[in-house]
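Task card 7
Instruction: Convert sequence to structure tokens.
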Amino acid sequence: MQVTPLYAGLLAIWFVVLSARVIQKRRAGISLGDGGDAGMLRRIRAHANFAEYVPFVLVMMAVLESSGTSVYALHAIGVALLLGRLLHGYAFSFSDSFPVGRVAGTVLTLSTLVVSGALCIVQSIGSR
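Output:
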């Protein structure tokens, strides 16, 4: 079983949900930008923040997986990334006040970046 495609698929579904939230608000009359609407800004940032972080982690996961990294390590990264993005996206796009979700989501996401990056470096050094 390949691990990375599982999390890529699950995260893609969440990205569509976040996209739909922006589209829904756009249909209500905000065709470009945030229109000065704080709720729209939150939806845009949830969507954009996802797009800024998730692809990079998934690329590192794919590299690690192709290099033979433990499936347990990959699942740990995948679960942390998924949970982090769900919490962060919910805090921004579905809630006006869920600071715990925003903080926890940010910590989990940044942790996946650090761990994935460190594992990639170790993998690179070990392959010489």
